[in-house]
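--- STAGE predict ---
source: upstream dedup step, 1 unique chain passed
mode: sequence only
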Amino acid sequence: MSDNTAFKRVLLKLSGEALMGEEGFGISIDVLGKLANEIKDTVELGVQLAIVVGGGNIFRGISKSAAGMDRSTADYMGMLATVMNCVALQDATENIGIATRVLSAIEMSQLAEPYIRRRAIRHLEKGRVVIFAAGTGNPFFTTDTAAALRAMEIQAEVLLKGTRVRGVYDKDPAKHEDARLYAEVSYNDALQKDLRVMDSTAFALCRDNKMPIVVFDMNKPGNIRAVVAGAKVGTTIREGNTTRFAEV
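--- STAGE serialize ---
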């Protein structure tokens, strides 16, 4: 572990929507460039960084067509959307000199390496950013679940979830002006209060394997680096009985 970081190895979960900027769907080149620079700043601290990206920015554009489809078929289409996002993010990061590998749960050798746990860990040890594509490779599982699963498999020390808000609130901040931001929440309180940090399968994986989760605002420049460096950013969900609100 670098002296400048609180963690040696982390997994960052990004929603596909984070890549579309102000557009209704698709990929914003401007957002990709900014995100690539955030990744570069983080990696230069010495941390080993793995990333899981959702596909909502692309799948949203075809979701009406998928409404009448078999669930498995629609889920596989969503996995393909994540591959597009991952390849785009790889291109953006490599354009600024950061070695990056895309590992896909669905075999497509022309675009990505097949996901092999030991290979992923080896890439991380060599200082490469690893981007996991195609979710778990199975329908009925979200990319949140894929992020939790990959975090366990690569023995990450923390799962970072980038969102559009500062962290986890006691109520929807878009609807309630008096919503309060949590600084820290226990797994049990997050379940009891139905805070919906992640989907239930992903959350159960993290809770059962004592994987801490940090939910933070991806739109604020420098936040990824700050979290990795140990700054108190966003909301931390971890084992224990401590639940407290952030200072105003």
